[in-house]
Design a protein that fits this description.
Glutaredoxin; 5-stranded mixed beta sheet
Length: about 140
Amino acid sequence: MYPPELVKPMQAELENAGFISLHNAQDVEKAIKKEGTTLVMVNSVCGCAAGTARPGAIASLKFDKKPTNLVTVFAGVDSEATAKARENMIPFPPSSPAIALFKDGALVHMLERHHIEGRPAEVIASNLAGAYEEYC
């Protein structure tokens, strides 16, 4: 577990953009099963989360189409919530950071760490915007 004072600004970055932080399995399950589209960001303390994943996810919300619901879990902090989110992302292996789009409870788009790492935030945002065009 990471110290709360370390992760608070990383959580706040997404919360300030409209994401709801989830801390238990029940809240994750309810969020994913909601009608419409739900973007789930698996947050992390790593550099690619800070440099591209969080900024890319936030920038993707500036396009015309966007998900109905925005939620986040924090790997290494919200263990139960992260495990439940990852369970819903199968067949993809656990990854952090990761960004998943669900529509009416079904996984329809996934960005794993290897899709995020080494790519600029604009590429992440554009990839997500394409998924929003198709599913939102």
